[in-house]
Design goal:
- The chain is of the alpha/beta class.
- It has twelve helices and 16 strands.
- A seven-stranded mixed β-sheet has the order 7-6-12-13-14-11-15. Strands 9-2-1-10-16 form a five-stranded parallel β-sheet, covered by helices on one side.
- Helix 1 runs parallel beside helix 12 and helix 4 runs antiparallel to helix 5.
- The longest helix has 19 residues.
- Bound molecules: flavin-adenine dinucleotide and uridine-5'-diphosphate (UDP).
- Flavin-adenine dinucleotide binds next to helix 1 and helix 12.
Length: 374
C-alpha cells in the first residue's frame, strides 16, 4: 500500500494550496473531497458557456503582493472590479456609500454638501449615544451614515442577511462598509482584485497539476478515516466539530440558498451584483455571472445569461455550512474544540470549516504560504 506524506481532506483553497506547496517540497500527497468535484467553494459550473459560481459569487481581492503574484503565476487574473448596485423599491443606488450614492439619495453635488447632509442625518443618533461607543449594528450605522441610508440601504438588507434585527447584531459587521466623499464605486479598498481568466476551475487545475485526487470520497465514510495507514500527516479542512464527533455539541452556521436560472437575453441586469435592500423581495442579491468575465461586446457575443438569486437562511442538517455564527455561545464552543485540535498529533486543521472562522480567499492563501516545514 502506498504511504503518502500527507492525506489532505478537502479540496478547497486551503487543501489545494497545501498540496501545491507539498509537491514543490518534493512530498507526495493525496487529496480527497466528498463532493463530486474539486475546488471547494470557488468551484464554477459551466452553463451556456458562462462560469457560474455554484457556491456563491467569489471576487478575489487583496493588498498582499505576494499572494497576488502567486495566484497570477498559476493563471492570470482579469480586471473585474466589484461595483455593486442597490435596488430599494425600484430605485437604484451605487455602493459602497460614495458621492454617487449621496447624489442619488439627496441630490447633493459636492463633497462639502454631502458631508453637511451626513452630519445632519447622524445628529439624532450621535446625540442619543452621548459620547458612548455604538453597541450594535443599528447604532453603528446610524452614527456612520445617518437615518436615510440606514433605512433604505442597510436595515432590511441586513435583517434578510442575518435573520435578526440590526439592534441585535454586533457593530463590527457594518464597519467593513467604506464611506467615501469621492465618486468611486469600487467596493473594495484593496490594491488588487479580479477573477482568474477562464474561471476559478483553471486556478484549481493549475494548483493540482500532478497531484493525486479522489472526489466523492467522504473522510468519515471511507477507509481514509484510518488515515495513519495511508499517510504520515493529515491536513483536515472539514468541519471542526464533526472531526470530534460533535462531542461537545454542534456549531451553528448561516447558509445561503441559490436559485439559478438561464435567461434568454444577453444582459439581464447590466451588472454582476445587484443587492435588493428592502423586504419587498425575500432574496438579498441577484448575481449575473457573465459580468465577472465578459466585458463590452463579449456580453452580447454570448446570447444567454445566467442569474442566481441568493436567499440567506438558517443552517439545517444537510445544507452547506457557509458562515460561522460568531456569537458568544458558538465562539466558546469552537474554542473548546480548538483546544482538542491542538492536542491531535500530526494533524493540521486548516480553512474556514476546520477553524470555524470566516476567511476570504486571499487570507487563506496567505496562511498556507506562511506555513513553515511543509
Ligand atoms: P472550502 O472551499 O469550503 O473547502 C472545504 C472542502 O472540504 C469542500 O470542498 C468540502 O466538500 C470538503 N470537505 C468537507 N468535509 C469533508 C469530508 N468529510 N470529507 C472530504 N471532504 C470534505 N472570499 C473572497 O475572497 N471573496 C468573495 O467574494 C467570497 N465570497 C464568498 C461567498 C460565500 C457564499 C462564501 C461561503 C464564501 C465566500 N468567500 C469569498 C470565502 C471563500 O469561499 C473561502 O475563503 C474559501 O472557500 C476557503 O477555502 P477552504 O479550503 O477553507 O474551504
Ligand atoms: N450591507 C448592507 N447593505 C448592502 C450591503 C451590505 O446593509 O447593500 C451590510 C450587511 O449588514 C452586511 C454587511 O454590510 O452583512 C457586510 O456586507 P459585505 O457585502 O461587505 O459582506 P458579505 O456579505 O460579503 O459578508
Amino acid at each position: 500500500m502506498k504511504k503518502y506524506d500527507y492525506l489532505i481532506v478537502g479540496s478547497g483553497l486551503f487543501g489545494v494550496i497545501f498540496a501545491y506547496r507539498s509537491k514543490q517540497m518534493g512530498k507526495n500527497c493525496l487529496v480527497i473531497d466528498k463532493r463530486p468535484h474539486l475546488g471547494g467553494n470557488v468551484y464554477c459550473e459551466n452553463i451556456v458557456g458562462i462560469n457560474v459560481h455554484k457556491y456563491g459569487a467569489h471576487i478575489f481581492h487583496t493588498s498582499n503582493k505576494e499572494v497576488w503574484d502567486f495566484v497570477n503565476n498559476i493563471v492570470p487574473f482579469n480586471r473585474y472590479t466589484n461595483c455593486p448596485v442597490a435596488n430599494y423599491k425600484g430605485k437604484l443606488y451605487n455602493l459602497p456609500f460614495n458621492m454617487n450614492t449621496f447624489y442619488q439619495m439627496w441630490g447633493v453635488l459636492t463633497p462639502e454638501e454631502a458631508s453637511a447632509k451626513i452630519e445632519e442625518q447622524k445628529a439624532e443618533a450621535v446625540k442619543m449615544l452621548n459620547g458612548r461607543e455604538p453597541q450594535n449594528l443599528e447604532e453603528q450605522a446610524l452614527t456612520l451614515v445617518g437615518k436615510d441610508i440606514f433605512e433604505k440601504l442597510i436595515k432590511e438588507y441586513t435583517e434578510k442577511q442575518w435573520g435578526r434585527k440590526c439592534s441585535e447584531l454586533p457593530a463590527f459587521i457594518i464597519k467593513r462598509l467604506p464611506v467615501r466623499l469621492v465618486f468611486d464605486n469600487n467596493y473594495f479598498n484593496d490594491k488588487y482584485q479580479g477573477i482568474p481568466i477562464g474561471g476559478y476551475n483553471k486556478l484549481i487545475e493549475g494548483l493540482l497539476d500532478g497531484v493525486e485526487c479522489l472526489t466523492n470520497t467522504d473522510f468519515f465514510n471511507s477507509e481514509y478515516r484510518d488515515w495513519q495507514k495511508y499517510a504520515d500527516k493529515l491536513v483536515y479542512c472539514g468541519p471542526l466539530d464533526q472531526y470530534f464527533n460533535y462531542q461537545y455539541g454542534k456549531l451553528n452556521w448561516r447558509t445561503v440558498r441559490f436559485e439559478t436560472e438561464t435567461k434568454d437575453c444577453p444582459n439581464y441586469q447590466g451588472n454582476a451584483v445587484v443587492n435588493y435592500t428592502s423586504h419587498d423581495e425575500s432574496y438579498t442579491r441577484i448575481i449575473e455571472h457573465k459580468h465577472f468575465e465578459m466585458f463590452g461586446q463579449e456580453v452580447y457575443d454570448c446570447p444567454k445569461t445566467v442569474i442566481s438569486k441568493e436567499y440567506s437562511t438558517e443552517y439545517k442538517e444537510g445544507m452547506e455550512p457557509y458562515y460561522p455564527v460568531n456569537d458568544d455561545q458558538n465562539d466558546q464552543l469552537a474554542e473548546r474544540y480548538r483546544h482538542l485540535a491542538e492536542q491531535e498529533e500530526n494533524v493540521i486543521f486548516g480553512g474556514r470549516l476546520a477553524e470555524y472562522k470566516y476567511y476570504d480567499m486571499a487570507p487563506v492563501i496567505e496562511k498556507v504560504l506562511n506555513i513553515k516545514n511543509i
